[in-house]
Design goal:
Layout: E1 3-7, E2 11-12, E3 18-25, E4 35-42, E5 46-54, E6 59-61, E7 69-74, E8 79-84, E9 93-98, E10 109-113
Parallel strand pairs: 2-10
Antiparallel strand pairs: 1-3, 3-8, 4-5, 4-9, 5-6, 7-8, 9-10
Length: about 120
């Protein structure tokens, strides 16, 4: 079975870049038809789809992030990475990695943006 685990800093300062890894086990990030997706949840915005990367390695993003997000992968490590630039306190949220329709979710990781 596919297991996902988010990893990264719990605290990031404003204007810095947030980097989170989605560590995948029990399956390959190149598995046919899988889209490896980042979703976040905050009290102010609720659930927000951020973007994803396809099993072929093509990323795509929510335009609401104003081009600040970047999703990449490392097939040798079987990991997917989210980078969010120029963070503000509004980016404070619980961040999840998920395969969405395939039903796989990480436990989520709390990220707080504060000076």
């Amino acid at each position: 079975q596919v297991q996902l685990q988010e990893s990264g800093p719990g605290l990031v300062k404003p204007s810095q870049t947030l980097s989170l890894d989605c560590i995948v086990s029990g399956g390959s990030i190149t598995m046919n038809a899988y889209h490896w997706t980042w979703i976040r949840q905050s009290p102010g915005k609720g659930l927000e789809w951020m973007g994803a990367i396809t099993y072929r390695g093509t990323p795509y993003y929510s335009p609401t992030l104003n081009g600040r997000a970047s999703i990449s992968r490392d097939t040798s490590k079987n990991q997917v990475t989210l980078q969010l630039r120029s963070v503000t306190p509004e980016d404070t949220a619980v961040y999840y990695c998920t395969t969405l329709g395939f039903g796989d979710w990480g436990q989520g990781t709390q990220v707080t943006v504060s000076s």
